[in-house]
């Protein structure tokens, strides 16, 4: 597909990203329900993965903003949908990140950025 692919051409990528976000969100829910019994490596993995996903979302949103004006009318619904989904995911991942940081690293007096 050439440059005119627009949003539809990134749909598989975005769908894969959304699946990753959903899996991590489920794991975060389980972890936050019983954080004290979660292994350190698992919490650190989740924290790091959330950071990576937040970065991927921001890159996707940035790319969307720059392609918005070349998107055909038929693709605008995809643009709106994905932008909304990514913004919601960005918000919920940020909340998970904050909660893990506060509840895990706060208790263990250990800074995740030092790992």
Which characteristics define this entry?
115 residues, mainly alpha, Methane Monooxygenase Hydroxylase, Chain G, domain 1, 3 helices, elongated
Order of helices and strands: HHH
The description of the largest β-sheet is: none
Q: What is the CATH topology classification name?
A: Methane Monooxygenase Hydroxylase, Chain G, domain 1
Helical element count? 3
Structural class assignment: mainly alpha
Let me know the number of strands: 0
**In the CATH hierarchy, what is the architecture at level 2?**
Up-down Bundle
CATH class: Mainly Alpha
Please give the share of residues in helix.
Answer: over 70%
Global morphology: elongated
Low-confidence stretches: none
Integer-rounded radius of gyration: 17 Å
Strand content: under 5%
Give the N-terminus to C-terminus distance in angstroms.
41 Å
Report the mean per-residue pLDDT as an integer.
Answer: 80
Quickly count the domains.
Answer: 1
Describe this structure in words.
The protein is mainly α and 115 residues long. It has one domain (3-114): Methane Monooxygenase Hydroxylase, Chain G, domain 1 (Up-down Bundle). It has helices at 11-33, 40-67, 76-108. The radius of gyration is 17 Å and the shape is elongated. The model has no long low-confidence stretch (mean pLDDT 80).
């Amino acid at each position: 597909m050439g440059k005119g692919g627009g949003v539809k051409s990134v749909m598989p990528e975005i769908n894969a990203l959304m699946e990753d976000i959903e899996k991590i969100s489920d794991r975060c829910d389980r972890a936050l329900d019983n954080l004290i019994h979660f292994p350190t490596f698992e919490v650190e993995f989740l924290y790091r993965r959330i950071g990576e996903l937040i970065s991927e979302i921001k890159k996707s949103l940035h790319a969307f903003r720059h392609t918005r004006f070349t998107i055909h009318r038929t693709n605008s619904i995809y643009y709106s949908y994905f932008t909304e989904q990514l913004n919601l995911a960005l918000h919920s991942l940020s909340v998970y990140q904050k909660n893990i940081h506060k509840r895990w690293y706060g208790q263990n007096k250990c800074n995740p950025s030092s790992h």
